[in-house]
Amino acid sequence: MKSVLLIIGGGIAAYKALELIRLLKGKGIGVKTIMSKAAEEFVTPLSVASLSGEKVHQALFNLTDELEMGHIELSRAADLLVVAPATADLLAKMASGLANDLASTALLATDKPVLVAPAMNVRMWHHPATQRNIAQLQADGIRFVGPNAGEMACGEFGLGRMAEPSEIVAAIEAQLAPGQKPLAGKHVLITAGPTREPIDPVRYISNHSSGKQGYAIAEAAIALGAQVTLVSGPVSLPIPPGVGLMPVTTAQDMLKAVEGALPADIAIFTAAVADWRVAAVAGEKIKKQADGSAPSLSFAENPDILRTIATRKSGRPKLVVGFAAETEKVIAHAQAKLARKGCDIIVANDVSAGKGVFGGDSNTVHVVSASGVEDWPPLSKAEVARRLMEKLAGML
Ligand code: C5P
């Protein structure tokens, strides 16, 4: 059995360490714990011991502990050391090699890989001293997961929120079994690009979707070992290697292709599906009228592919993710959409003029689910894709 030594630092995010222990135990990963003195102000050693099923190691100079398992052995018995939350103080100690309590001593004495999940106030995160320490730790081979951006317990906003327990678990699994990819054997279904709704044989109605975010997600899913089906409207992007591509044109075609591709473990709907199609597509090219009159078109509503799949009675993918492009009240609209569409996650982004999301390479998203809102910092579409797939892999 793989095991981790979890070092719980003293910060408000320490409460998330309890969920982290629960998730790790659920995956069959053994968890021994060290709590810093400050951590005990936020969670009790009794809660940690109950969840981990093991005694909690607390003080450096504890004769009983040393007789049972010395601190050197404790730091080497695990396959991986995880620091969550990793406070600014703990990171500073690690960066300068201090060993004045059990947590820092174990971190200095170990010969095992170390993963840290930083959590601190945004100003502390951006402070040059912290940034220097992080650069040093990265140079020393320490792995990082997070931090994320968002609202903080102190009321401020920005980078410094600890990564969610599911993200930390995904990072731990990637560390523990580098050869074994977390989505091996899983089928991920993705829609991408615009749909094109014909008016007559030569004209159509469509939108500006480039398909870049959906294609990036397909690549990220492949990298995690998934079998990927990409149902794509017309775009001008190279087909990601290893992806099963199903090219489609209209929304109705897209729904048919998606239903044909089921079952899937995860379905991610990034396509910008046209809400309406022309009710009666002309069989011949519509001619200009001699009297200068313009033709009028009437529309029919297209199927909502995301909603159709998310509300299926049988064969619903375990995780259904929608995207929401909004130009105002981004979070409120995303929360309403989550309920209306019946999906597990809505990834919301602000596509108002000037944000450069459509066709651009970067994206600022808010990940909305029943358990709350995560505000991610501005990231490349590739990085949004990587983080999203790691998060989903952790949730499966
Ligand atoms: O309602 P709205 O179009 O804003 O919802 C966006 C989300 O729903 C996206 O995930 C999109 O791919 C999906 N969608 C769909 N079928 C539609 C409309 C939207 O799958 N007809």
In short:
The chain is α/β, with parallel strands linked by helices.
Structure, described:
The chain has helices at 15-26, 45-52, 63-68, 71-77, 88-96, 102-109, 122-126, 128-139, 165-176, 212-223, 251-261, 305-310, 330-341, 381-395; strands at 3-8, 30-35, 56-57, 80-86, 114-118, 143-144, 148-151, 157-161, 187-192, 197-198, 204-205, 227-232, 244-247, 266-269, 276-278, 299-301, 319-326, 345-350, 362-363, 365-369, 372-375, 379-380. 43% of the residues are buried. By secondary structure, the protein is an alpha/beta fold. It contains 14 helices and 22 strands. The protein has an 8-stranded mixed β-sheet, sandwiched between helices. A 6-stranded parallel β-sheet has the order 3-2-1-4-5-6, with helices on both faces. It is elongated and about 100 Å long. It folds into 2 domains: 3-176, 3-Layer(aba) Sandwich (Rossmann fold); 187-278 and 295-395, 3-Layer(aba) Sandwich (Rossmann fold). Helix 9 (165-176) crosses helix 14 (381-395). It binds cytidine-5'-monophosphate (C5P).
Give keywords.
single chain; 396 residues; alpha/beta; Rossmann fold; six-stranded parallel β-sheet; 14 helices; binds cytidine-5'-monophosphate
